[in-house]
Amino acid sequence: MxxxxxxxxxxxxxFIAAPxxxxxxxxxxxxxxxxxxxxxxxxxxxxxxxxxxxxxxxxEYCLYADQQQLSCWSHATAGQWQQALTLKDDMVxxxxxxxxxxxxxxxIRYAWMxxxxxxxxxxWRLF
Length: 127
Description:
By secondary structure, this protein is mainly beta. It has one helix at 2-17; strands spanning 28-32, 35-40, 45-65, 68-87, 91-97, 102-114.
């Protein structure tokens, strides 16, 4: 009997822990990509941002990038949003309730491959 209980628990935990798996009464906030990388520090970074969420109760929810409102859903329990964005610094993506109460947030990190070089010694001269 103990082995059967252990197997049932293991089966249940496998599905709960599986990526992208949610119960009807659970919540989820998925932001992709998690980071935006440019070649050089200071360059503008371009990403195709995708956000999906679900909540257990019907209400009004709004999605924000820093303080800018991106989209709102009325009397909803789930939503998806996708758009191309540009950034030059970290950006906070957040889901807020209709009364502006933050529910979830995720910071998209701005990263670069090569540090910005402001040195005049690296310039080439042809004469």
